[in-house]
Design goal:
Layout (H helix, E strand, L loop, with lengths): L1 E4 L2 E4 L10 H5 L2 E9 L2 E2 L2 H14 L8 H14 L5 E8 L16 E7 L5 H6 L1 E7 L14 H12 L4 E6 L2 E5 L3 E6 L2 E4 L10 H12 L3 E4 L12 E6 L3 E10 L3 E2 L4 H13 L5
Parallel strand pairs: 7-8, 7-14, 11-12
Antiparallel strand pairs: 1-2, 1-6, 3-4, 3-5, 5-6, 8-9, 10-11, 10-13, 13-14, 14-15
Bound molecules: 4'-deoxy-4'-aminopyridoxal-5'-phosphate.
Family: Belongs to the class-IV pyridoxal-phosphate-dependent aminotransferase family.
InterPro entries: Aminotrans_IV (IPR001544), Aminotrans_IV_CS (IPR018300), Aminotransferase-like (IPR036038), BCAT-like_C (IPR043132), BCAT-like_N (IPR043131), Class-IV_PLP-Dep_Aminotrnsfr (IPR050571), D_amino_transT (IPR005784)
EC number: 2.6.1.21
Length: 279
Amino acid sequence: DYIIYNQELVPRSEATIQFDDRGYYFGDGIYEVAKIYEGKPFAMDLHLKRLRSSAEKLDMAFPFSETTMTELLLHLLQKNNVKNGLIYFQLTRGVEPRNHLYTRKSIPVFTAFTQPSQDLKDMQKNGIDVWLTDDIRWLRCDIKTLNLLGNVMVKRESADNGCQEAILNRDGFITEGSSSNLFLVKDKVLYTHPATNLILNGITRQVLINLAKKYDYKVVEEPFPVDVLEHADEAFITSTSVEIAPIKSVRGQLSANFEVGPVTKDLQNKFKELLPKGE
Ligand code: PMP
């Protein structure tokens, strides 16, 4: 198993990181996770675009081009012989002595590794239970940063309550999941939070919205109050790792139950058709 450190492939067992990396002591960095199907990354162009946008929002330089980055990542997939799985890649602001004030002189450190993806069959077919709790994150959730404590803490809270995902309530409105975006369905119309500073604009979210519109579903991107959950026909989450997972129950600040409905199933099937196929 290999990893990438800057522009080199290194055996994982020999890989080291620098003690003075800002990513290590400030979480000063950004990342992406892309999914690999039959050896091919899905929507890599969108992931690279979002990484570039996260870098710009954080005044962080790119150490080399997207083309070089893609070549490196594809090389890693080949070397690790990944057919189906996930590729994680990140950029930190680089190595310099600890000081809140960054100098703009450090060179961002690029690292990447691959890992297996979880088995999704049961989740996608039967759905998940989600835990509604307060959104305790900062106000720049649109940036995919390494700083994930708000997400990490609510994920644990949801698991401790027997749920697979936390759904977040900011001032009475639903933003998204701890590592996913949320959609509601009512009378065949899809509802989801708009891509503002309060959510991460998921790649799966973007792909799904385009797909739904192509098949003449109406998509409303507006914030909705938490109690709307009680009146929805269907609900589901989206993310690179789970794709589309129906919600069967909401617990915590509010209770609601859903069937795995026809719109969710239809979109799951249409989404599967977009995924890279084997030869
Ligand atoms: N929101 C948050 C907070 C996330 O961490 C993620 C990704 N893990 C998503 C949404 C879904 O984004 P994507 O579809 O790009 O995986």
